[in-house]
Amino acid sequence: RTKWPLVTPAIVAAYIAVFFLLASGRGELDNPKTLIELRGNIGPRTTNGEWWRLGAAMFVHVSALHLIAEIAGLVQIGLLVERLVGRMAFAVLFMATGGHARICNLAFHSVAVHAGSAGAIFGVYGLLMASLVLGMIQRSTLTVPVGVLKGFWPGVAVFVVYNTLTEGPV
Q1: Is 72 in contact with 160 (CB distance < 8 Å)?
Q2: pTM for the full model?
């Protein structure tokens, strides 16, 4: 549907730009106090008028490894899903699922600092799975070859393993 995906590369560029901007400042990125200053999501601040933190926290990463894992998890699948559903639908899905994940973080861990966009990336995975199932139920001209899906496993594995091992707030 979309010949040239633009949203996924823009998200990755924003990840990298924000990471280097924040890493060049003072403080350790994995320090909760630093993360609060750098726009991390935390209940007392977010629920007291700083709602923009729900979106901003998705572009804050606590380490280079965190950044690499999220880029590995997003790039290949994001490029495919964006081409399947279109730029606007992809951007809305990414921000909505990421925002929903941030709200769930606030509900379950309100005084912990949260950063990253794992929830948004898992939302992209969910849309890919739904698209594949729908494509099997209703034959479509837009099909994803199995060989393409097999090529995704290294990035998905890095992302899932990283998020499984580092599960929880900072």
Answers
A1: no
A2: 0.84
